[in-house]
Design a protein that fits this description.
2 domains; alpha/beta; Helicase, Ruva Protein, domain 3
């Protein structure tokens, strides 16, 4: 089976199920990937800490619905400029993917809007996928009926990537850019740079730009040092 890689929203690659490194989350990925085709599954709730790939999976599902010619909407509720009225305009979508919903926990208007959205979506046989940092019952929700509705579908915990998975994710990202990174270069980077996947992928993007300018594809340790000096100096 092809391994997969979680990508940040800032990456140039489009999030998909083919470029997500599932690590120990294989079953969870399979459930999200089959979401579009599973007529009996209407709602999913993904939760877990930072860097476990929640946003990537929501975007992968969103992109798959779009590719199939269905109407889909994705948004992260981290965006403080959003208002709860946004959800009122989503009637008729085959999929609504709401990321970081715990960011609005405790806000009465948002909680009522989420409650209504779940009910409306069920009535018209649409689908919803949520993500949060905590399980529904653990969040600071004020509307008890909303907590029960958030748990109507499968509630899936995503685990963070292991060090081995992070290394593989790095090498896959490099390969997808058409670059060549020897193992010693990868080890050097992982020992001296943040192992946060988003941060590593920003480095890969930098290496891609600099290697193109230099007319080279092989990423050696000296070349890596030169590139990293640009962001640290």
């Amino acid at each position: 089976m092809q391994r997969q890689l979680p990508l940040p929203l800032s990456a140039t690659l489009v999030p998909s199920f083919d470029n997500f490194c599932h690590g120990v989350n294989g079953l969870a990925v399979d459930m999200v990937q089959s979401f579009q085709r599973a007529d009996d599954v209407r709602q999913l709730y993904l939760w877990g800490g930072a860097q476990c790939g929640k946003s990537h999976l929501l975007l992968a599902a969103h992109n798959e619905f779009i590719a199939a010619g269905m109407q889909s909407f994705y948004v992260s509720l981290k965006d403080v400029t959003l208002t709860s009225g946004l959800l009122e305009a989503l009637d008729g979508h085959a999929l609504v993917a709401l990321d970081d919903i715990d960011c609005v926990a405790g806000d009465k208007a948002w909680e009522q809007a989420l409650f209504n959205l779940i009910n409306f979506t069920r009535e018209r046989a649409g689908k919803i996928i949520f993500s949060a940092s905590q399980a529904p019952a653990v969040g600071e929700w004020g509307l008890a009926d909303l907590v029960s509705r958030l748990s109507w579908g499968s509630v899936i915990k995503l685990e963070p990537l292991s060090d081995i998975d992070v290394r593989e994710a790095l090498l896959m990202a490099v390969d997808e850019k058409g670059l060549q990174m020897p193992e010693e270069t990868a080890d050097y980077l992982l020992k001296r740079h943040s192992r946060d996947v988003n941060s590593l992928l920003e480095v890969v993007a930098l290496l891609d730009r600099e290697s193109l300018a230099a007319g080279r594809a092989r990423i050696t340790i000296p070349f890596l040092k030169t590139c990293l000096a640009q962001v640290s100096g």
